[in-house]
Amino acid sequence: MILVLLGPPGAGKGTHAVRLKETLRIPHISTGDIFRQNIKAGTPLGTKAKSFMDKGELVPDDVVVDIVKSRLLEDDCADGFLLDGFPRTVVQAEMLDAALAESGRAVDKAIDIIVLAEALIARISGRRVCKACGATYHVTNMPPKKDVVCDVCGGELYQRADDSEETALNRIEVYNAQTKPLEAYYEKAGTLTRIDGAPGVERVFAAILEAIGAQDGRH
Fold first, then answer.
1. What is the structure's pLDDT at 215?
2. Domains of the chain
3. Of the four listed, 40, 115, 146, 164, which is most buried by Cβ atoms within 10 Å?
4. Active site annotation includes 128
């Protein structure tokens, strides 16, 4: 099964992607993770990507597409995969479809998680990350036991530059301008399913499983 997760920043794509990976036993491919790994390592790609991510802007197609295509050629993607954060534009979606068609494959489902802007800003701006181990928290929904201290390793928690309220607003505006058109793209292809992202995690995840016809780890 080949899945694409859509939804604005803060919609919960990352949370559900991890669970889908475990349930469906397919790799979870997150461009955000790929770029953050490169940023931490200080690679040229990471430096270039960071300049855009810190401003809440999308990383350009030419930087994104090649790294994703090479990842999809790895052996663990042979039986399917879950894309989170890619494609982000219709151009990228067209490039993905063309690459998949070369091997006789296609996107099976595009899941679009819908959340109101006010809730998104609260979710994003409340995120905190451990500088040492990368564990994530939320000041309201999942606070650490001790303020600004990681429960896992005792490291210092901080707010990423792209999680500030100002940048969160910009990220949502960028999403609406550049990525939201993917809804029409996948709707035309007959693969789009919209999911209300407002209820709790369990209810949203159950709705996603129902949409893709998955149950008890089988699909």
1. 59
2. 2-116+171-212 (3.40.50.300)
3. 115
4. no
